[in-house]
Amino acid sequence: MLLFAIALAAVAVSFAWVAIRRLRDDERRTHIDELDDYAYQFDLDTPQRLEYFSLVNARKEGKEAPSTNTLMVALLNRAAAVLPYVERVERDRPRLHKLHRHSYVPTSVLDELVASEHELQGEVEDVRAEAERLRAGWGREIFAQAYHIARKRHAEAMHAAGQAQRGAGSWSQSGTHLTLGLPLPPSIRRENVIVNFEQQACVIIVGGHGPRRIELERPVKPDECHWSVRDDGTLQIVLEKEASGMWKGPHKAQ
């Protein structure tokens, strides 16, 4: 009887240990899933940073010297461009430290985060110094302003992507083509737009947000479809119909 009780206790302990391991594994997966990935080698040479330096160099050389206001706008854009990196570091840092304490990620990953954080801090301080040079006291305010600009652009991009998905805008057709015209917010440039074509769908990413799918009424020829951003800020999408004929509308009936 005693041996049976000991065996039963051993089984209970074994099950309890398995349960604890599963809880730990679930916790590990939860924290890992919350991280985008383990790559923290940020490219701080953003197009906005390069544009700002080109304006500064032009001013030094006296070639079509930009105004102070032009430099301030360019610097604000430079600050807004690194905000996603700042937000990611602040979000991932405590989670990554916790994972490292439990040996769920190697030390090299944590070292990469720390090194990138130092580089990012250097860029932030450089932007603040440039802001202070352009206008006294602006160094303390520039990133707060950049944050508001980034949030506004995010809202505009989401709105534009939503319009695309809902089919807001204009459309026209011929027997072989269907053309969509979708309005974009003023802050969105061509390099901020991606359009991919499928046999009966159009996938749109605006300002890094999305993807948004437009389910088409009928099949198209993806390889022969194309898109462009017009001078008036309209996203124009030209769809090559798979079969000639007139559609009732661009979207698949719900």
UniProtKB/TrEMBL annotation:
Coiled-coil features, chain-numbered ranges: 110-137
Keyword Coiled coil part of the UniProt annotation: yes
Biological processes annotated in GO: post-translational protein targeting to membrane, translocation
Alphabetized Gene3D superfamilies for the sequence: 2.60.40.790
Superkingdom per UniProt: Eukaryota
Cited InterPro entries: CS_dom, HSP20-like_chaperone, Sec66
UniProt domain CS: residue ranges: 164-251
Sorted UniProt keywords: Coiled coil
Gene Ontology CC, one term: Sec62/Sec63 complex
Name listed for the protein in its UniProt record: CS domain-containing protein
